[in-house]
């Protein structure tokens, strides 16, 4: 029996460190759509990426989830500098055929509340609530995009809300203060469009197009839901390069 799809993703990501060619067999050799704009198209682009990894590269996947044909992972990387990343893989007929990711340089300091970008719970629970939790986050993003700010407090777990963004403290007041401080420095976060909402149990990943300080940016937000409320959030922000710098034509999303 082949490894589970989750394990295949963990092994494929780990091959960036180990250079083990075996997990490369999980990728469809005839169809692989790459959305990392710094990687060339097709399986050849992945092979070139692995070959070009520095000898001291390290990959440590912290969380991995599955939603239908999609597997998504939250990983700590160190190649050409430390980064935190989310990777999404789409499977078709048992093989990986598409990949999206979002990487942010790892913060050198803890968040104002003492968290790293990656620590916290990893175990999936409430599998029977997957669809309800995805619907919750879709409604939240719909309200956010529409500017319905009066609805926001109803989505959160009040004073217990935990935030892993390196610039933002825990609690709703901490979230508001952090976003206001960023805006005051010319780094306002403005969401433009939601491209994906994926989930498993009490974890939901939202893939969104935004601007950060006016720069086109992809934001991946991972939320942990507890009793129908947002209890915890991890995220990564990555600037979208100008089109003339793309190494494939598939787009970020």
TrEMBL record:
Q: Which SUPFAM superfamilies match?
A: NTF2-like (SSF54427)
Ranges for domain SnoaL-like come to: 41-99
Q: Which Pfam families match?
A: SnoaL_2
Query: Which InterPro entries does this UniProt record tie to the protein?
Result: NTF2-like_dom_sf (IPR032710), SnoaL-like (IPR037401)
Q: What protein does this entry describe?
A: Putative SnoaL-like aldol condensation-catalyzing enzyme
Source organism per entry reads Edaphobacter modestus
Give the classification, highest ranks: Bacteria, Pseudomonadati, Acidobacteriota, Terriglobia, Terriglobales
């Amino acid at each position: 029996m082949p490894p589970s799809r989750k394990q295949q993703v963990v092994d494929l990501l780990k091959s960036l460190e180990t250079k083990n060619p075996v997990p490369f067999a999980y990728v469809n050799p005839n169809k692989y759509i790459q959305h990392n704009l710094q990687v060339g198209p097709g399986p050849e682009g992945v092979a070139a990426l692995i070959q070009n990894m520095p000898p001291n590269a390290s990959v440590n996947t912290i969380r991995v989830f599955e939603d239908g044909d999609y597997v998504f992972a939250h990983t700590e990387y160190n190649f050409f500098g430390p980064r935190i990343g989310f990777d999404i893989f789409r499977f078709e007929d048992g093989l990986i055929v598409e990949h999206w990711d979002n990487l942010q340089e790892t913060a050198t300091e803890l968040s104002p509340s003492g968290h790293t970008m990656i620590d916290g719970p990893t175990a999936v629970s409430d599998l029977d609530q997957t669809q309800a939790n995805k619907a919750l986050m879709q409604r939240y993003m719909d309200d956010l995009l529409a500017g319905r700010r009066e609805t926001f407090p109803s989505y959160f777990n009040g004073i217990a809300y935990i935030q892993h963004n390196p610039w933002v403290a825990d609690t709703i007041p901490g979230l508001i203060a952090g976003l206001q401080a960023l805006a005051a420095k010319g780094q306002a976060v403005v969401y433009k469009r939601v491209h994906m909402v994926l989930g498993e149990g009490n974890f939901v990943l939202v893939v969104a197009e935004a601007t950060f300080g006016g720069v086109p940016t992809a934001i991946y937000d991972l939320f942990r839901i507890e009793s129908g409320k947002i209890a915890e959030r991890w995220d990564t922000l990555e600037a979208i390069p100008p089109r003339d710098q793309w190494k494939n034509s598939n787009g970020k999303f």
